[in-house]
Design goal:
- By secondary structure, the chain is of the alpha+beta class.
- It contains 12 helices and 19 strands.
- Helix 6 packs parallel to helix 7 and helix 10 packs across helix 11.
- The longest helix has 18 residues.
- It starts with a helix and ends in a 7-residue tail after the last helix.
Length: 453
């Protein structure tokens, strides 16, 4: 009985409730295998819900004893999806792990028992840390020590994650770790649109070849099920088209003033505030000023009524490797320029690293999306319900424009130009109102005179 009293019960790993309206979640990836040691609050598995994708931390330190719910399975909140035993306890037999986890051999229980039977002399021998890991082991280790975003950056720059020391929990490699490494290390020369020139194509002395890029997840002709996020995106896009009477208007903006301003201040801005100066807060701020003048653009339809929202909550569309999400910058009308930049940067980083909470994607009253970052001249975005309008930002390009000076003389000059599109719900917003709103956004950008901090 005394022995039973000393036994430590394993800790249950449960599917968390990521918000009041969330009733289930899909496990998209386990970051550890049965038999692996875990630290409390270390990322343990990834989930997808109808609100956000997120990394879920370990509830306790110890050894991942059992995976009860495999990748791709959807279960209700508070379901036990696995267990963690006290550090050093043998892992219990588990259900078959997902294919990726099963590829690397899990540490069997007998291995722990054999360690205890070793003689003292053998125990003093150094661990074989110098042995080179097999390619499969290296791949599995990199996936458990990094996020999809970090691995994407590594592939794009031809960097092996084994060269990088992680500063995150459990040695996890963060985006800041890999970006710091890339900035310090000489990078391969870029040619055309290729991400990098392979070693065999360079003229300099031969170097160790970069690790081959992984094969794509699917090939032409394959039938691949929709991810949970893609299902939700598809459903909401169709719902929005059926709900709102979509109309679009487009405005050409001379963006030269802001391009020059950013180029002049971006280095000092980053050194002073520790955050990069991007173009997005200029667009958001210009829209906020216009929304304050035309509040119906910030409104929404509720039955037979119009809701004029007191606060301006701006949704910022973020493109991810696995889909699209719109985190929300709350009370954006109360923020100065620096506050807007910090908020936009924070939401983007947390969206890409799966750190958003359900409340971070709720409550938007107006949305800004940026297809121009990929080279689009302009876009015709679908309204993010229950908003009544969405502003699309096109690419910034140099074009010849007719410029009129103060004396009324015309000349042709090379200017930085951006095309802005407003998609709006014609049930609520008339064309004249939409045009006046966009005219003010255009004016705010072309005559920018606010301090940027």
């Amino acid at each position: 009985m005394g022995r039973a009293w000393k036994e430590i019960m394993p800790t249950d790993i449960i599917m968390p409730q990521m918000g009041e309206s969330i009733v289930e979640g899909t496990i998209t990836k386990w970051l550890k295998k049965p038999g692996d040691k875990v630290q409390r609050d270390e990322p343990l598995f990834e989930i997808s819900t109808d609100k956000v994708d997120a990394e879920i931390p370990a509830p306790a330190s110890g050894v991942l004893q059992e995976i009860k719910v495999t990748e791709g399975t959807t279960v209700g909140v508070n379901t036990v999806v696995g267990t963690i035993s006290a550090d050093g306890e043998a892992a219990a037999p588990t259900k078959p792990a997902p294919a990726k986890a099963a590829a690397a051999p899990p540490a069997p229980p007998a291995k722990e028992e054999k360690r205890e039977e070793k003689k003292p002399a053998a125990a003093a021998a150094p661990a074989p840390v110098a042995a080179a890991p097999s390619p499969q082991e290296s791949s599995d280790d990199e996936e458990t020590r990094s996020s999809p975003l970090v691995r994407k950056i590594a592939r794009e720059h031809g960097v092996s994650l084994s060269q990088i020391s992680g500063t995150g929990l459990g040695g996890r490699i963060t985006k800041q770790d890999i970006m710091s490494f890339i900035e310090k290390e000489p990078q391969p020369a870029r040619v055309g649109t290729d991400a990098f020139v392979r070693p065999a194509e360079r003229s300099e002395a031969p170097v160790a070849p970069a690790a081959p890029r992984p094969a794509p997840a699917a090939y032409p002709g394959d039938l691949v099920p929709l991810t949970n996020m893609r299902k939700i995106i598809a459903q909401r896009m169709i719902e929005s088209r059926r709900t709102s009477a979509h109309v679009h208007c487009m405005y050409e903006v001379d963006f030269t003033r802001i391009v020059t301003l950013r180029a002049k201040h971006k280095n000092a801005f980053e050194q002073r505030h520790g955050v990069r100066l991007t173009f997005m807060p200029f667009f958001v701020r210009a829209a906020i000023i216009a929304l304050q003048q035309w509040p119906i653009i910030n409104g929404s339809i509720e039955g037979d009524n119009i809701r004029y929202h007191r606060q301006i909550n701006v949704g910022i569309a973020v493109a991810l490797d696995w889909g699209l999400i719109v985190p929300v910058l709350k009370n954006a009308g109360d923020l100065n320029f620096l506050g807007l930049q910090r908020g936009i940067t924070d939401l983007g980083e947390r969206a890409r690293t799966k750190k958003l909470k359900p409340e971070d994607v709720e409550g938007s009253t107006f949305t800004v999306t940026n297809p121009g970052q990929f080279g689009a001249v302009f876009g015709l975005p679908i309204i993010n319900q229950p908003n009544s309008a969405i502003m699309g930002v096109g690419g910034i390009t140099k074009q010849p424009l007719v410029v009129t000076d103060k004396e009324g003389n015309d000349s042709i000059a090379i200017r930085s130009v951006v095309h802005l599109t407003l998609g709006y719900d014609h049930r609520l917003i008339d064309g004249a109102v939409a045009d006046q709103f966009m005219a003010m956004v255009k004016k705010n950008l072309e005559t920018w005179n606010e301090e940027i901090g």
